[in-house]
Design brief:
- This protein is an all-alpha fold.
- Helices cover about 55% and strands about 0% of the residues.
C-alpha cells in the first residue's frame, strides 16, 4: 500500500496509510519500504543489471515453487512448536520494553504485539523443521519486528530495502543475537539455552 502522497517519517503509520490504529494492530508485520536516496546502493543495483545478471540460470540451483509449497504445507501440519524457556524470556522482555518505550504507537504495543511475536517465532521454528521454539527463533522474531518499525527502539533504524545479504550469515546471526540479548538485558541467556 502506498501512503497518501509522500511518506512523512515524522507522522505515524496510521496517518501515512490512512488506516486506523485498531486495524493496523491486526497485522503481524507491516513492512515500510522507503526508497531513500542511496548512491552506493543505486550503483550496485545498476552494475548488477547492466552486467546482465541472469536469474533464470541461477534458478536451477533453487527449489522449485512447487517444492517450496510442499515444504511449507508439510511443516505447517507436522509441527506445532512449543516455546522453550529461553524463547519465552526473549519475547516477554521485548514486549515489556516496547510497552514502556512506545506510548505514542499504542497500535503496535497491545497484547497483539506479543501474540504476533509468538506466531513469528513459531513460524521460524517450523521453517527450520523443529517442534520447539528455540532462542534463535525468538531472536529472529524480534529482528523481524524491529525491521518493520521505522522507529525501532532496540536495534535502531534498519534500512530493509537497502540491506545486502551477509557474506557470512552465521556470524552475522551470532552478532545480532548478542546485540538483541544485550539490549534486552539478557546477556547470559545464550549460554544457558
Amino acid at each position: 500500500m502506498n501512503p497518501r502522497g509522500r511518506y512523512d517519517q515524522a507522522a505515524s503509520l496510521s496517518v501515512n496509510t490512512a488506516l486506523s490504529s485498531p486495524l493496523l494492530s491486526r497485522f503481524d508485520l507491516i513492512m515500510v519500504l522507503l526508497d531513500t536516496r542511496n548512491d552506493q546502493w543505486d550503483m550496485r543495483v545498476a552494475e548488477y543489471l547492466l552486467e546482465g545478471a541472469d536469474l533464470a540460470a541461477a534458478a536451477d540451483e533453487w527449489w522449485s515453487f512447487e517444492r517450496l509449497q510442499a515444504y511449507v504445507a508439510l511443516v505447517k501440519v507436522r509441527f506445532q512448536p512449543r516455546a522453550s524457556s529461553a524463547s519465552e524470556r526473549v519475547l516477554t522482555r521485548y514486549y515489556q520494553i516496547q510497552r514502556q518505550r512506545d506510548p505514542a504507537s499504542s497500535a503496535r504495543t497491545t497484547i497483539r504485539l506479543l501474540e504476533s511475536l509468538i506466531r513469528l517465532a513459531q513460524a521460524h521454528a517450523r521453517l527450520m523443521f523443529r517442534d520447539t521454539v528455540l532462542l534463535c527463533d525468538a531472536v529472529t522474531a524480534v529482528v523481524l519486528m524491529e525491521s518493520t518499525m521505522l522507529s525501532a527502539s532496540l536495534l535502531g533504524s534498519i534500512d530493509t530495502l537497502h540491506t545486502p545479504f551477509a557474506d557470512d550469515p552465521d556470524q552475522e546471526y551470532k552478532e545480532t543475537e548478542a546485540l538483541v540479548l544485550s539490549r534486552l538485558g539478557l546477556e547470559g541467556l545464550a549460554e544457558q539455552a
